[in-house]
Design a protein that fits this description.
The complex is a heterodimer. By secondary structure, chain A is α+β, with helices and mostly antiparallel strands. Chain A has helices spanning 22-30, 85-92, 102-115, 121-127, 139-148; strands at residues 2-7, 10-15, 48-51, 54-57, 70-72, 159-160. Chain A has 2 domains: 2-76, Roll (Ubiquitin-like (UB roll)); 85-148, DNA polymerase, domain 1, CATH 1.10.150.120. Chain A is built from 5 helices and 6 strands; from the N terminus they run ββαβββααααβ. The mean pLDDT of chain A is 96. Chain B contains 18 helices and 32 strands. The longest helix of chain B has 28 residues, at 541-568. Chain B is α+β, with helices and mostly antiparallel strands. Chain B folds into 3 domains: 7-30 and 470-620, Aldehyde oxidase/xanthine dehydrogenase, molybdopterin binding domain (Aldehyde Oxidoreductase, domain 4, 2-Layer Sandwich); 39-373, Aldehyde oxidase/xanthine dehydrogenase, molybdopterin binding domain (Aldehyde Oxidoreductase, domain 4), CATH 3.30.365; 403-466 and 639-803, Aldehyde Oxidoreductase, domain 4, CATH 3.30.365. The chains are: A alpha+beta, B alpha+beta. β6 (159-160) of chain A pairs parallel with β31 (725-731) of chain B, so a sheet runs across the interface.
Chain lengths: 161, 808
């Protein structure tokens, strides 16, 4: 079937199979491989994108469902050759390690702070619960969210004994 | 090779710049193998065994072969190569027999993934199901089926390992120190107990994936999500009897490794499919389910410890027996057995020690390296046991630990003498004890208990680990100066998230006295272009590659000074430099820029000298020996990183539900090259350790089918599982042969989280836990479980354990 969808502000008109997921449509048809596949079952959040303002696991959405809609992926996060404030905060706060969960995590943070500009730590944990990260232990990601929402204390470093 | 500098003069080391590759990873630009598509690329799928042990009577590929778009099909009978790191025991595809649930028996390469999937479904396998060996303790019994009847015919690393043909024992490592029987005779108390933990999955967010192209003339290129490019290349070449120059291994960004991608896994299979398909590149990526059973896991362990203690609380003797469940193939498990064997007593001084550590084949998915390399598993038992021993003899567990800790002059299990520079475990332990107000409840905690009706308990646990690696582990680094005077650093060490790229850039910038933005460490690895490194494992990268980086920078500067000396008509000994130029120390205006000499210096008349500046550094582990096979004595450890955790837990004594209020961790890292990266390792590893402690583990049915190969049934910690408070403490006792004094801390944060939690729960509600993970129902059961003390206290000062007052 033919779909019309806006991805990161650009219009796409594509022929898609009825059973192709948004994830595979983005990665294989459109060539945007920033969105990752971690489980294919909607459990890990590596494939999170924003569809019509809502965060979704793109492995659980059919490309056909996005017809007429608007999708934001990690490739649209930086603007005019500059990292977004979220991305800057992630870099500054060491919220990235292997980087595989990072695109989905950034999109979930984007969705979170757009609906809640000053989330508490509990709300951040709730908001990112669906995004697995096996490297960071989440703490520096939470600190990055506090930072980008203007709630961070000084840069966190370990204490010395 | 410590670069001694006044810490206050360090410009880069000890600071926390952002990681170099962060922008790539944050914008989706970073390419992982899973993102790659090559021209003409085919997609592979495998047919997997639904049985734990079965004879393959017949494989029929006729229907699969007829499917349009199928380009290659392979079964075990087509492939005559065996692979193995230390014991060469694994066929690329099962031959004649399957040895574990999920094992690959056939593989397909097709134009699309959908066709490959359909073709794999159409392959028909006729099995004769055989009784499997599903429990590693049963596997040792006389008459147990043999997982590898041909064990005696396999090649293995003879200097280090001891397979026992005719049994299911892939390796037996021993350690004998002092006189164990004399020690037990002198002991006032003897306490013995068994501790267990299941297999677990690493869960890298990027599952294993490889692309291979087997071109004309056996020219092979492999792109793989792996930790160790040179090990993939060298093991591949050994199996296929190819020259190293024929095989090129490329590793771009890696979506997590944790040991699971340390060795060689999917690469031989995809390469064989490519050859069969006439040289078209073939890609295979494991599904999340396949990651659990086709790819390896962490071995289960049964650990028996018998400890003899003098009346004053000093340990006099300890007998240790480790039974490691290797699963169907030996892979890294034999070396996990060796390394955890020589570390098995923890950071404690044991004058008389006896250890046997077995690696046992079973019909289950096989074990491999996993962050901590055996130490997460055995420290569970060891640090629960130390708690039990202390409480048995009526001594505070913290005091008991302090009394028995290694100190300068102590001898380890293998006879290595500890020095003042080895690291300070006491300082780590004291730091976490202080951070959790060990041994008391604060007024706020007492008020909380009164308010909630829940019990608060506190526990500590120590840890140590040395890199587990061959005695001759080596690495090399090349520093190349670009024509603008900035440098590019090539290392074989792989960036798998640990931050080595950034830390090495800081080390190079420090040694060169360059600004950090003039140093780039490449992320992508290529065995044809990068200098050799053994593996990215063992928390050894910082010390070995760090040193080689320092040496490569020194070499580059020496060459730069030589050219500059000629250009300036000055002696090298009178020169100095900054980030821009080399100058005459007593006449600083007399200078030449690095850019002027980077690729050779040209005099005004056009005459030229020098040439491109390239520095080479190489470093090899110093002074290590193989261990004596009978006594385990020798020098296996390049360095020891010590640490400790302290946990405050709140437990519901009625239900066993618990919640971690605080965890404090301390590590003696020698020197934190980048404190924020160290903190990232500390917290990330600790949370991964919490996964092991709280909930993770393989569950099988009685036929050996894995029941929970998914995130639905095998949870890993999410952001909502974090303790309320997390504190990281760094201790810095410089490692004399470490780069700027640093030692590794990649694996250590995961070790001993579980026993610290177990000890805290015990101290809260008396639940005596001997198995991890610790689920709420386990705590509930343990609270209600009253075991006669004579089952574990086998000697007391008065002769009978009946005299012991056991609070429970």
């Amino acid at each position: 079937m033919k779909i019309k969808v806006t991805i990161n502000g650009a219009a796409y008109e594509r022929e898609v199979a009825e059973n192709i997921t948004l994830l595979h449509f983005l990665r294989e048809d459109v060539g945007l491989t920033g969105t990752k596949e971690g489980c294919g079952g909607g459990e890990c959040g590596a494939c999170a994108v924003i569809l019509d303002g809502r965060p979704v696991n793109s492995c659980l959405v059919l490309a056909a469902e996005t017809d007429g809609g608007s999708v934001s992926t990690i490739e649209g996060e930086a603007k005019d050759g500059k990292l977004s404030e979220i991305q800057e905060a992630f870099a500054r706060r060491h919220a990235v390690q292997c980087g595989y969960c990072t695109p989905g995590m950034v999109m979930s943070v984007r969705a979170l702070i757009e609906r809640n500009p000053r989330p508490t730590v509990a709300e951040i944990k709730e908001g990112l619960e669906g995004n697995f990260c096996r490297c960071t232990g989440y703490v520096q990601i939470i600190e990055a969210v506090l930072d980008v929402t203007g709630q961070a204390d000084s840069k966190q470093e370990p204490t010395h004994a | 090779m410590l670069e001694t500098s006044n810490p206050s003069s360090l410009q880069h080391v000890g600071h926390s710049p952002a990681r170099q590759e962060a922008p790539d990873k944050l914008t989706g630009a970073a390419v992982f193998v899973s993102d790659m598509t090559l021209p003409g690329m085919l997609h592979a799928q495998v047919k997997k065994s639904p049985h734990a042990r079965a004879k393959i009577r017949r494989i029929d590929v006729t229907r699969a072969a007829r499917l349009p778009g199928v380009r290659a099909i392979l079964t075990g009978e087509d492939l005559h190569y065996r692979i193995g790191l230390y014991v060469v025991d694994k066929d690329i595809l099962a031959k004649g027999v399957v040895r574990h649930y999920g094992e690959a028996v056939a593989a397909v390469a097709a134009d699309t993934l959908a066709v490959a999937r359909e073709a794999a479904d159409l392959i028909e396998v006729d099995y004769e199901v055989l009784p499997g060996v599903l429990n590693h303790m049963d596997a040792l019994k006389a008459g147990a089926p043999l997982v590898h009847p041909d064990l005696g015919a396999y090649d293995y690393v003879k200097a280090v390992f001891s397979p026992q043909p005719g049994t299911n024992i892939a390796n037996l490592s021993k350690c004998r120190k002092g006189d164990i029987e004399k020690g037990f005779a002198e002991a006032a108390w003897i306490v013995e107990r068994e501790y267990t933990n299941p297999s677990v999955q690493h869960v890298p967010m990027e599952t294993h994936v490889a692309i291979a192209q087997w071109k004309m003339g056996d020219d092979i290129t492999i792109w793989t999500s792996a930790q160790s490019p040179f090990t993939v290349r060298d093991l591949f070449c050994s199996s296929f009897k190819l020259p190293r120059s024929k095989v090129r291994v490329i590793i771009p960004n890696v979506g997590g490794g944790f040991g699971g991608k340390a060795g060689i896994h999917l690469e031989p299979l995809v390469a064989c499919l490519s050859r069969k398909a006439g040289g078209r590149p073939v890609k295979f990526q494991a599904t999340r389910e396949e990651e659990f059973s086709l790819l390896p896991c962490r071995s289960a362990l049964t650990y028996r410890i018998k400890t003899g203690v003098l009346a004053d609380g000093k340990i006099i003797a300890q007998k240790m027996e480790m039974f490691w469940d290797a699963g169907a193939y030996a892979d890294y498990a034999v070396n996990v057995t060796r390394a955890s064997g020589y570390s098995a007593a923890g950071p404690y001084e044991i004058p008389n020690a006896w250890l046997d550590a077995y690696t046992i084949y079973t019909n289950k998915p096989y074990g491999t390296a996993y962050r901590g390399f055996g130490h997460v598993e055995f420290f569970w038992g060891l640090e629960r046991h130390m708690e039990l021993v202390a409480q048995t003899i009526g001594m505070d567990p913290l005091e008991f630990r302090r009394k028995n800790l290694l100190r300068p002059g102590s001898l380890t299990l293998t006879g290595e003498k500890i020095t003042a520079h080895t690291g300070d475990v006491r300082k780590c332990l004291d730091a976490v004890a202080e951070a959790i107000h060990y041994g008391e409840l604060t007024p706020a905690e007492m008020a909380r208990e009164a308010r909630t009706g829940l019990k608060i308990g506190k526990g500590v646990a120590t840890l140590h680990k040395a890199p587990a690696m061959p005695s001759f582990t080596a690495t090399s680094v090349i520093v190349k100066m670009n024509s603008d005077g900035a440098v590019l650093v090539n290392v074989g060490l792989t960036e798998i998230g640990q931050g080595s790229t950034t830390a090495l850039a800081q080390i190079a910038a420090e040694r060169l006295k360059f600004p950090l933005n003039k140093v780039k460490v490449t992320v992508e690895k290529d065995t044809d272009r990068d200098p050799y490194d053994w593996q990215t494992v063992a928390s050894k990268g910082l010390i070995l590659t760090g040193n080689a980086t320092i040496l490569a920078c020194a070499d580059l500067l020496e060459k730069a000074y030589e050219t500059a000396g000629q250009a300036l008509r000055a002696q090298a000994c009178d020169l100095d430099h900054d980030g821009e130029k080399i100058f005459v120390r007593h006449d600083p205006d007399h200078s030449v820029t690095f850019a002027q000499i980077a690729v050779g210096y040209a005099y005004p008349d056009g005459n030229a000298i020098g040439g491109p500046l390239v520095g080479v550094g190489r470093y090899i582990a110093q002074g290590l020996t193989n261990l004596n096979k009978e006594t385990g004595q020798g020098l296996p450890a390049l360095d020891w990183t010590y640490g400790a955790h302290g946990i405050i837990v709140e437990v519901n004594a009625m239900t066993g539900q618990y919640h971690i209020l605080k965890i404090a961790s301390a590590y003696d890292v020698g020197k934190a090259i980048n404190p924020a990266l160290v903190r990232g390792q500390c917290i990330g590893g600790m949370v991964q350790g919490l996964g092991t402690a709280l909930c993770e583990g393989y569950v099988y049915d009685q036929q050996g089918h894995l029941l929970n190969p998914s995130f639905t049934d095998n949870k890993i910690p999410t952001s909502k599982d974090l303790p309320d408070e997390i504190e990281c403490v760094i201790v810095e006792t410089p490692q004399l042969d470490g780069a700027y004094g640093a030692r590794g801390v990649g694996e250590h944060p995961m070790i001993s989280v579980a026993p610290a939690l177990g000890n805290a729960i015990k101290n809260a509600v008396g639940a005596e836990l001997t198995h991890m993970p610790i689920r709420s129902e386990d705590v509930w059961r343990a609270i209600g479980h009253k075991e006669p003390v004579e089952t574990w206290i086998t000697k007391t000062p008065t002769g009978s354990c009946r005299s012991v007052v056991w609070g429970g």
